[in-house]
């Protein structure tokens, strides 16, 4: 006898949408469309977003614009740090020492490494 409840969320007609990250480019596109005069519901439908999401983006426009000015022109998804030559040399030597100790089966602890 089948149960009365659906087996998964896809069978529920009013299930919530799955969360997804919205890129900075998409947020800027929402703001551009809003500034042109397009309605929130039209923007949401065109971009496949909830109206409440578009409204939140509109309300946070100052933060989003500030973030877009700070972001790199290529909109890099990850940041890189530049290490000094001294730090690179030290890390390379530490790696060689760790490999040597490992090959000799010497037990290592954090205090020994530090």
If you had to describe this structure to a student in words, what would you say it looks like?
By secondary structure, the chain is mostly helical. The chain folds into 2 domains: 1-75, Winged helix-like DNA-binding domain superfamily/Winged helix DNA-binding domain (Arc Repressor Mutant, subunit A, Orthogonal Bundle); 84-114. Helix content is 55%, strand content 0%. The mean pLDDT is 82.
Number of helices: 6
Structural class: mainly alpha
User: In terms of per-residue confidence, which ranges show pLDDT below 50 for 5 or more consecutive residues?
Assistant: none
The figure for the number of domains is 2
Please write the CATH class name of the largest domain. Mainly Alpha
Report the helical percentage: 55-70%
CATH architecture of the largest domain: Orthogonal Bundle
Write the CATH fold name of the largest domain: Arc Repressor Mutant, subunit A
- Overall pLDDT: 82
The end-to-end distance, rounded to whole angstroms, is 65 Å
CATH superfamily of the largest domain: Winged helix-like DNA-binding domain superfamily/Winged helix DNA-binding domain
Secondary-structure element order, as H and E?
A: HHHHHH
Main beta-sheet annotation: none
Report the count of strand segments. 0
Radius of gyration: 26 Å
Shape: elongated
Strand content: under 5%
């Amino acid at each position: 006898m089948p149960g009365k409840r659906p087996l998964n969320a896809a069978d529920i007609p009013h299930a919530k949408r799955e969360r997804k990250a919205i890129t900075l480019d998409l947020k800027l596109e929402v703001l551009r469309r809003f500034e042109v005069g397009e309605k929130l519901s039209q923007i949401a439908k065109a971009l496949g977003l909830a109206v409440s999401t578009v409204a939140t983006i509109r309300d946070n426009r100052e933060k989003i614009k500030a973030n877009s000015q700070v972001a790199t022109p290529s909109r890099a998804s990850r940041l890189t740090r530049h290490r000094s030559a001294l730090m690179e040399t030290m890390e390379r030597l530490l790696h060689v020492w760790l490999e040597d100790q490992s090959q000799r089966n010497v037990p290592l602890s954090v205090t020994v490494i530090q």
